[in-house]
Write a structure and sequence with these properties.
Layout (H helix, E strand, L loop, with lengths): L26 E5 L2 E5 L5 H8 L6 E3 L5 H4 L6 H7 L3 E5 L1 H10 L1 H4 L11 E5 L4 E3 L2 E10 L2 E8 L2 E4 L7 H4 L7 E5 L12 H11 L3 E5 L7 H10 L5 E3 L11
Parallel strand pairs: 2-3, 3-4, 4-5, 9-10, 10-11, 11-12
Antiparallel strand pairs: 1-2, 6-7, 7-8, 8-9
The protein binds zinc ion (3 copies).
Length: 247
């Protein structure tokens, strides 16, 4: 829902620490002046403005929930500037949701104004974006499938409740693992902090970064708590955080 959560007066929502302001989760991958975005959130436009994004070369979608796709229409300026369709990588399950949610993009009715232009690439195995191999990491997110993505020494795994054994070997030897840790209270579709810590202990990345964080977790206090519990290599991610990734 983003933090502050609308109408909420809790201490995290009222916090003046910018780290406690959380737009919906996404990642921008950049290499040699080209860029790909993982998920077009309802905040995509603001996120792209904040990063000064001047071009976009690919879109990857993890799954079809509203908080990950509702900014899809805002790729249009890049279509117009670059005069081309953008490759869109996702599962067939996600494409089906996208076709329903953005019917005007896919129903082939004549458009009198600009609509997003994409070429659909169903992800069935590793693929290349920005001249870099990206490996999908399938997981379960309550009742639906979700794709994590591994690129070089880093992996991004948002919105999941269950990581099958077949996906775990794809996440060995990481420098940076960015993973879902919604809150402390159990949720049927997301990892808790405790569950995420157990997975970090198993996969042993050099560093882990929690994302998709609800307003239950204050940034600095939670990081301090993790440090005191002996997890100083595990911290909460925050808006605008950048990482260098070896590929
Ligand atoms: Zn709140
Ligand atoms: Zn979701
Ligand atoms: Zn989500």
């Amino acid at each position: 829902m983003g933090v502050p959560s609308l109408g909420c007066r809790c201490r995290v929502c009222k916090s003046t620490d910018p780290h406690d302001n959380r737009t919906r989760p996404s990642v921008l991958l950049s290499r040699n002046g080209r860029h790909a975005v993982i998920d077009t959130t309802p905040d995509f436009r603001q996120q792209a403005l904040r990063m000064g994004l001047e071009r976009l070369d690919a879109v990857l979608l993890t799954h079809g929930h509203a908080d990950h796709i509702l900014g899809f229409d805002d790729i249009r300026p890049f279509n117009l500037r670059q005069k081309c369709a953008l490759p869109l990588y996702a599962s067939e399950e996600t494409f089906n949701i996208l076709r329903r949610t953005f019917a005007y993009v896919f129903d082939e009715s004549p458009a009198l104004s600009a609509i997003p232009q994409v070429t659909l690439h169903e992800v069935k195995g590793p693929f290349r974006v920005l001249d870099t191999e990206v490996a999908p990491v399938p997981a379960r997110h309550g009742g639906i499938g979700v794709l994590g993505f591994r690129f070089g020494s880093a992996a991004y795994l948002t919105d999941f409740s269950e990581l099958p054994a077949s996906s775990r070997h794809l996440l060995m030897g990481l420098d940076d693992l960015i993973l879902d840790a919604l809150r402390d209270e159990p949720h049927p579709m997301h990892q808790t902090v405790e569950q995420a810590l157990a997975l970090v202990a198993e996969l042993q990345p050099q560093r882990a970064w929690f994302t998709h964080i609800a307003h239950d977790l204050p940034h600095h206090e939670t990081n301090e708590r993790l440090r005191k519990a002996g997890h100083s290599h595990v911290q909460l991610a925050f808006d605008g955080m950048t990482l260098e990734v070896h590929i």
